[in-house]
């Protein structure tokens, strides 16, 4: 097993009476101070509820946005405290400071089962620099550290990594689940194992493709990134989004797949339009029939049928990145079809964060997936096969 699977969890500790510093990822979208999607808050509730029930004195910490190391009211976590209190059905004290006397006083006032939320840790310039002195000040507030911030686990920051130099560090339930479900899929998948990779650019996901190609039985490529592969196969793709500097890389990946007996599936037809617009005229085009003035904005019906068949035959499926410009209805069919096919899989289905989560929610099939990651960048780095700094610094299980 890899390092990722040998960490300690809440099950390894007795939090009763302890001051427990819980690093969560409450980096939720907000408009004018109103939370527009609280998925990440809900995802952290199991850990918080468990610590409350087991008598911990719960100190919650998170970043919100990128306030550049300065206090900025627009990035205050105060609205998150209110939302947490609604869900937990108990008060959540909010401390306007995340270190120093005010934070210490708030922590000292906490009794067993009570909850405190600290202000945005990125109001300190030292947070993103993983400043040891700031890490020590966070650690001074607590007796135990719980990392439940999978979405920020790819960051080596003071509250996600540095703090573990001073406190025993275990994974929260969300972190544990993210690592267990995705780790099991990567290390010991039920086969056939299929990965579907889409989205805008090959450059963002080249390492993911390389790593997954070693592990999967089928790798399905869609979205804008497929165009670079089609170019590598010698097709003209008109005005489609392409990364010409990656054509040779794409060609090498196609060859690698051929040589290793893996099935790398690429589109065999496309939905093309002459404008990048929701109301653009569009048509189905074979690969050799894309005109100079056209751009590919979705996979075509034949491709959908082939991809659906591959997914239907699979026992483990990981998906990252839409198959087309799913935000526009006319170009959302490929993405919808993949979501539908995944919903019907009798096995493990994992959505690897980012836009694919928005896509799966848009089609109302989120409940039908085994796991939807709360991390975009973090899940990508995990799928690249990297050990995330926030995971690396967790206490090792001895057995
Ligand atoms: N054929 C295409 N041409 C241009 N953009 C595309 C195409 N297919 C998908 N996209 C866009 O890619 C974006 C998502 O890409 P990306 O950020 O890489 O995915 P994720 O967030 O899931 O990792 C979406 O906004 C989508 O509209
Ligand atoms: O929202 C996040 O990343 P994501 O959009 O890649 O999932 C995390 O909270 C990390 O935030 P950051 O990219 O500002 O470090």
User: What coarse outline follows from CA principal-axis ratios?
Assistant: elongated
Q: Biggest sheet: strands, sense, closure?
A: 6 strands, parallel
CATH architecture annotation name of the largest domain = 3-Layer(aba) Sandwich
Oligomer: single chain
For the termini, the CA-CA separation is 12 Å
CATH topology of the largest domain: Rossmann fold
Q: Any idea how many domains?
A: 2
Number of strands: 17
Q: Tell me the number of helical segments per DSSP (H or I, 4 or more residues long).
A: 14
The percentage helix is 25-40%
Task: Summarize it.
It is found in: Cytoplasm. By secondary structure, the protein is α/β, with parallel strands linked by helices.
Give an overview of the whole structure.
With 399 residues, this protein is an alpha/beta fold. It folds into 2 domains: 3-174, 3-Layer(aba) Sandwich (Rossmann fold); 181-383, Rossmann fold, CATH 3.40.50.1260. Helix content is 35%, strand content 17%. The chain has helices at 39-53, 78-88, 100-108, 125-128, 132-139, 173-187, 202-215, 226-232, 247-260, 301-312, 333-343, 355-362, 377-383, 389-392; strands at residues 19-23, 30-31, 34-35, 57-61, 92-95, 115-118, 144-147, 168-171, 193-197, 218-221, 263-265, 269-273, 282-286, 295-299, 316-320, 348-351, 371-372. The radius of gyration is 23 Å and the shape is elongated. The two termini are 12 Å apart. Adenosine-5'-diphosphate (ADP) binds next to β14 and α12. Belongs to the phosphoglycerate kinase family. It comes from Ferroacidibacillus organovorans.
């Amino acid at each position: 097993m890899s390092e990722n699977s040998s960490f300690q969890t809440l099950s390894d500790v007795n939090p009763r009476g302890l001051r427990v510093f819980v690093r969560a990822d409450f980096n939720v979208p907000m408009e004018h101070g109103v939370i527009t999607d609280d998925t990440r808050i809900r995802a952290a509730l199991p850990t918080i509820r468990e610590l409350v029930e087991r008598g911990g004195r719960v100190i919650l910490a998170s970043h919100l946005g990128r306030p550049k190391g300065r206090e900025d009211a627009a990035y205050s976590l105060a609205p998150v405290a209110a939302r947490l209190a609604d869900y937990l059905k108990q008060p959540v004290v909010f401390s306007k400071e995340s270190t120093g006397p005010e934070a210490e006083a708030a922590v000292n006032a906490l009794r067993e089962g009570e909850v405190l939320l600290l202000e945005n840790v990125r109001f300190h310039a030292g947070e993103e620099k993983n400043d040891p002195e700031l890490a020590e000040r966070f650690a001074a507030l607590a007796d135990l550290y719980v990392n439940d911030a999978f979405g920020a686990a790819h960051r080596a920051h003071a509250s996600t990594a540095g703090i573990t130099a001073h406190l025993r560090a275990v994974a929260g339930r969300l972190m544990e689940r993210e690592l267990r479900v995705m780790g099991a899929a990567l290390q010991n998948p039920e086969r056939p194992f299929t990965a579907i990779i889409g989205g805008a650019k090959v450059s963002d996901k080249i390492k993911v493709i390389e790593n997954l190609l070693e592990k999967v039985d089928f790798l399905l490529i869609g979205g804008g990134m497929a165009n670079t592969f089609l170019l590598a196969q010698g097709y003209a793709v008109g005005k489609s989004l392409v990364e010409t500097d990656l054509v040779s890389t794409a060609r090498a990946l196609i060859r690698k797949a051929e040589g290793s007996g893996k099935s790398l599936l690429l589109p065999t037809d496309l939905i093309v339009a002459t404008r990048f617009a929701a109301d653009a005229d569009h048509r189905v085009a074979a690969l050799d029939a894309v005109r100079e003035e056209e751009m590919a904005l979705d996979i075509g019906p034949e491709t959908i049928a082939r991809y659906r068949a591959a997914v239907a035959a699979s026992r483990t499926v990981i998906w990252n990145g839409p198959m087309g410009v799913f935000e526009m209805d006319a170009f959302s069919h490929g993405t919808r079809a993949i979501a539908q096919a995944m919903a019907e899989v009798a096995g493990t289905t994992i959505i690897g964060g980012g836009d694919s989560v928005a896509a799966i929610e848009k089609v109302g099939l989120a409940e039908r997936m085994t796991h939807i990651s709360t991390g975009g960048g973090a899940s990508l780095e995990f799928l690249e096969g990297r050990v995330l700094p926030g995971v690396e610094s967790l206490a090792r299980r001895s057995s």
